[in-house]
Fold:
Amino acid sequence: MTDLAEGHRCVGRTAGGLVVFVDGPAAVGDRITAKVYKIKKKYLEARMDDVLDPAPTRTDPPCRHFGVCGGCKWQHVQYEEQLRMKQKLVRDALVHIGGMEQPEVAETIASPDRFHYRNKVDFTFSNERFLLEDELDLPEDRRSKPSDFAIGFHRPRSFRKVIDIDRCHIATERMNRALDLTRDFFRSRNARAYSTRDHEGYVRNLVLREAVATGDFMVYLVVSGRNDDLLHAYRDHMLEGMGEGLTTLVAGYTKRRNLVAYAEELETLHGPGIITEKLGELVFDISPNAFFQTNSRQALRMYQAVQTCAGLTGRENVLDLYCGTGTIGLFLAGHALAVTGFEWEESAVANARQNAERNRIANACFHHGDLKNLAALWEQHGNGRAVDVVITDPPRAGMHADTVASLREMKPKRIVYVSCNPANLARDTAALCANGLYRIGPVQPMDLFPHTYHVESVATLDRA
Ligand SMILES: C[S@@+](CC[C@H](N)C(=O)[O-])C[C@H]1O[C@@H](n2cnc3c(N)ncnc32)[C@H](O)[C@@H]1O
Structure:
């Protein structure tokens, strides 16, 4: 294997010199065998079979579910090599998609925690269990059946089959304990998991959230409707098993016909119904459905990097685009004249306003709106002010072309682009820099998701 390809694939050449894209846990530097499943004019697509000669950067993945579960595709690669691969992904995107000749891309900043770093994990219940190879080897009376109860993660590309996860290495120890207790409870009661096949069944999702700074821990159980006796027994079982390690337990009721871990109606069965996290000086109350960066300690470092890049003096009007629950804007507010955030999720805007109030920040306001209409939004809420610094943190799809055009019209002195997708970072920064309007400085990749191919980057663009 000679290089990384898009997603989590590797690319290499066959003995005869043909280019081949390989799915599966290959590593750059491996010599492998693979089964070809698609023949194109200029290349082949194949699925990895065996490693003949392993790359020196390989390591043993600690997870029993590696290669089956879609979560951590890079666990077989040493962490330092993962960081280099992420730096390369960003650089390659800026060169090949952004058309930049020699972009400056710093070394990826490592996550402070390589395992157990997630502050939120969503598990799904199912009565369609994905059978692991080692389970198939067991004697028949101890072997699981496809119709067995499972709680864990979906098998990639399968909407219904769930891998029964006994231990997730990127979840915390307490999350794994809560997962075990939950499985024991519902399995012993022969609970029926909700299925999108017939829209029958009761238990849907288990969402676990843990605050690093305060130690708060939430169990959020999403079910199809009320069942007070069962849920009160579940609460007692969890409290008995976790004691003070469980600070709140919330039940969520929904009739949605999908398996998204979200419920419209919430009932708190224990504790305050929220957890509280601290990032630097700021305090955030996180409710069951709220978005929050999933690696708290690295998120703090990323916000610090954004603050450094923004270079605020206290005199600037700052825009926080795609602000979510306002974390970046609130983080910067103490260093700016005023911060205005825009976001299209109304509940996130409500959370951002609550967060401003909770932290007694008076110079940050948040508005609801589609950033495709940035010019109109600023016209409505900007009171004729000029914008000095823009922070933009779009979703994976990047910014809409109209948003980019509006930013070019507004001409702020500096734009700090926070990206979770190198390809769209490259596309958008190239458009912002067109005709020499902006110059891009060094790009800083940050690892918020060890063992996955996801990489966040912070880029600074200055008006030329
Ligand atoms: C990557 S998240 C940013 C979260 C936030 N900056 C933070 O650090 O917590 C992207 C956000 O953009 C919002 N969003 C996506 N498309 C949007 C649009 N067209 N207009 C406004 N907000 C949008 C999403 O709802 C989401 O909250």
Remarks:
- The pocket of S-adenosylmethionine is lined by residues 291, 293, 322-325, 327-328, 343-345, 348, 370-372, 393-395, 420 (CB under 6 Å).
- The longest helix spans residues 79-96.
- The chain is about 25% helix and 25% strand.
